[in-house]
Design a protein that fits this description.
The chain is an alpha/beta fold. Helix content is 17%, strand content 28%. Bound molecules: flavin-adenine dinucleotide.
Length: 319
Amino acid sequence: MSTATHDLPMLLEEVEVRRVERLSPSFVRLELGCPAFAELGVDGPWWDQRFKLIVPHAPDAALPSFEDADASWFGTWLERPVEERGVMRTYTVREVRGSGADTRLVVDVVLHADGEVGPGAAWAARAAVGDRAVVLAPRRGQQFGGIEFTPGGAQRVLLAGDETAVPAITSILSQLPPEAHGAAFLEVPHAEDVQSVVHPEGVQVTWLPREGAELGALLHAAVLTHLGCAADPAAGDVAEDEVDPELWETPTYSSSGEEVLEPAALEAPADVRDGLYLWIAGESRVVTGLRRALVTDHGFDRRQVAFMGYWRRGVAMKS
Ligand SMILES: Cc1cc2nc3c(=O)[nH]c(=O)nc-3n(C[C@H](O)[C@H](O)[C@H](O)COP(=O)(O)OP(=O)(O)OC[C@H]3O[C@@H](n4cnc5c(N)ncnc54)[C@H](O)[C@@H]3O)c2cc1C
C-alpha cells in the first residue's frame, strides 16, 4: 500500500476497506483505513466534512497510484484515461474511529436502488474487506476546507436533506452542543432506512420515508410547514432547464455568482430572521425548489442559508 505523499498538505492515500456493514436497503457503511490515517484530523468538529474517494472505473480496472504525488497531482491525474485514473466522487466523513495507524474513516454510501447506478455506488455495493480505493482527506493541522456547516451566532438550526445528506446531517447532529435547538428533516427511500441518531434534546428529528412518493416532495412540504410558510406545491416544481447540477449557494460561496460574505463575517452575531441558520442539501432540483421557496418567495436572507446540490438526477458527477 502506498503512503508516499508526505509533501502534500492533505492526505492522498490508498486505503483498504476494513469493515463493511449493510445498514439498511439504501445504505452501506464502510470503514476505510491506512497507516497514514494516524494524521487524519480537523481543527474542531467534523460537522459535514466532505472528502474525495477515488475508485476503479470498473470492477476489474486498476486503481491509480499517487506515489510521489506533488502539488500538480490533480492535473496529472485528470490527464490520464479514465480506465487508469478511476473516478473521483464526493462523500461525507460520517465518523472517525480508532486511533493511530488503526484510525478508520467511516463513510455511509447510498445505494441507488431507485436510479441509475454510478461507479461510486457500484463500488460500495460490492465492497469487501481488503478492497482498495484512494482517499483525499484532511491532514491534522492543515487547512483542507470542505466544511459548510457554519451556523455562526444563530440561535436555532434547521437541517434538511435527502439520503445523500443523511451522513452529513447525522454527523452534525451528533456533534452539536447539548444546548442546541432546532429541527432536522431527513428524507430517505424507505422506512427501513431510518437510523437511530444521537442528537441534542432541543433538536427535533423527523424522518420522512419516501416509499415511492416523488423525490423531495415530503422534504419540501415538511420544511415549509415547519417554518410556518404556506407550502405552495408549485414552488417545488422546478423546470429541468432551471437546475444547476452543481448548485452551491452558501453564505460564503455562490455557484450562480451572487454576492457572498467574507468567511469572517459568519462569526458576527446573527441578526437574521428568527435567529435561524438553515443547512439544506440533496438532489439539485429539490434543493433549487426549496431555495426558490425560502429565499425568493418567503424572504429568508441568503446569509442564513446553505443550499447544496449533492447530486443531480440523470447526471453523473464530474471527475
Ligand atoms: C459534499 C457532498 C457530500 C456527499 N456525501 C455523500 C455521502 O456521504 N454518501 C453518499 O452516498 N453520497 C454523498 N454525496 C452524493 C454523491 O457524491 C453522489 O450521489 C454521486 O453522484 C455518487 O456517485 P456515483 O458514482 O454513485 O454516481 P454518478 O456517476 O455521479 O451518477 C450516475 C447516475 O447515478 C445517479 N445518482 C447519483 N446519486 C444518486 C442517488 N443518491 N440516488 C439515485 N441516483 C443517484 C445520477 O443521477 C446519475 O444518473 C455527497 C455529495 C456532496 C457534494
